[in-house]
Amino acid sequence: MLFKYQQWDERFAKKNSKAPFDILWDTFQELLTIASGDVSQAIKWLTELDEEYDITDQFEEYSVDNFIDELQERGYLTEDEEQNELSMTHKAERSLRKRSLEEIFDSLKKGTAGTHQTDHTGQGLERQPETRQWQQGDDITNIDSTGTMMNMLKHSSIDKMQLREDDIRIHNTDHYTSVATVLLIDLSHSMVLYGEDRITPAKKVAMALSELILNDYAKDSLDIVAFGNEAWEISIEELPYLKVGPYHTNTQQALQRARHILHQRKYANKQIFMITDGKPSCIIEDGEIYKNSFGLDRKIVNKVLDEGVKCRRDDIDITTFMIARDQYLQDFVRELTKANKGRAYFASLDNLGEYIFEDYIRNRKKRVK
Q1: Confidence grade of residue 368 (pLDDT, cut at 50, 70, 90)
Q2: Where do the record's region annotations for Disordered lie (predicted)?
Q3: What 8-state DSSP symbol labels residue 227?
Q4: Which of 85, 166, 290, 309 has its Cα between 20 and 30 A from that of 339?
């Protein structure tokens, strides 16, 4: 028996450690997100990619057809027998959210993940070096054993050790507070203009943020509002299927809808995250759409600024994630930020997720009373 040895390549080992299904599944999920959940379109694109780049040639007796069959066997796709069409299952939707979350966290700087920390101390998860005297109801797991022992030794003898209640020292802990967030997603036509896909990164961020809150911040709430000519609430399950429409941008109604939602949330911290690339170009007036796509219409802009002030009065922060570089649009965002006393980020599509997650996780602006 003959053996042939060659230099070990870690990249080659990692590449070939995955099963054929796992390699194709990663690509297919990206295609599903871009196709807004249209399984037929995603399969078509995957087939074209395979024909052009010979993806399945590296596998033994495994084709795109085998992959589609396995997707159904594993419960990611289901077939509508009447319409003879494949569609995603809830398992596939959850997988897209999880993948988006992993993708964003892979790009975050080390150490940014955490919980919503305030400057106040109290019952929490993270110990502080400072200590204080123990009080009734304090968690005994936070006792400062060294400080307590030193206090006890001050009035104890070798023959008799005496621990008094006032000897006990306990560590302060950071106080964590719940957060109610409304995420606004712009679905106006400009999100796909000029050959740039802006809606897919926005959907990924929304899916990732929803998955993060569902898994790690159960006491927080996340509501999602899409807006074009009007604003409407959507469920987490609808996120993969979002599509850009032939819409104008009704920023005023989006902020108004978010404010009304947050009025119903009994949380210490309330915030609005708005992902947009365009100027406000319409409002609803007397039941009719008033629109102006040319420049910044002060009538429309003033309505948006009024809503920003109302949010400020209700102690609701607006954080705008602007993914357009036009100077006059950035000036509008700065104007809104000033009216609300909120924040604005002029983010690229590559780092949109990083901006939003870092802002969400590091949110320390509010004070718990």
Answers
A1: very low
A2: 108-135
A3: E
A4: 290
For the 179-361 domain, the top CATH level (class) is alpha beta
Whether the CA torsion 227, 231, 234, 238 is positive or negative: it is: negative
Residue 65: how many other CB atoms lie within 10 Å: 11
Q: CA end-to-end span of the chain, whole Å?
A: 77
Instruction: Determine if residue 129 is left, alpha or beta; phi over 0 gives left, psi from -120 to 50 gives alpha, anything else beta.
Output: alpha
pLDDT average, residue stretch 150-158: 81
In 3D space, the residue among 105, 16, 45, 65 whose CA is nearest the CA of residue 353 turns out to be 105
Ordered alpha helix ranges (H), the chain: 10-17, 20-34, 39-53, 64-73, 90-107, 145-154, 199-216, 251-263, 298-313, 327-340, 352-361
0.85 surpassed by pTM = no
> Which residues are registered as beta bridge partners of 79?
86
Q: Looking at the chain, which residues constitute the CATH 3.40.50.410 domain(s)?
A: 179-361
State yes or no: pLDDT of 272 exceeds 70: yes
Cβ(359)–Cβ(274) below 8 Å = no
Residue entry with tokens 């990206």: 30
Mean pLDDT lowest among 59-68, 147-156, 238-247, 278-287: 147-156
Query: Which amino acid is residue 143, in one-letter code?
Result: I
* pLDDT at 355 exceeding the cut of 70: yes
Contacts of 168 (CB under 8 A, 6+ apart): 133, 134, 143, 148, 151
| Closest to 280 measured CA to CA, from 209, 335, 215, 220 | 335
DSSP assignment string, 251-269? HHHHHHHHHHHHHT---SE
Residue in the block written with tokens 């995957």: 46
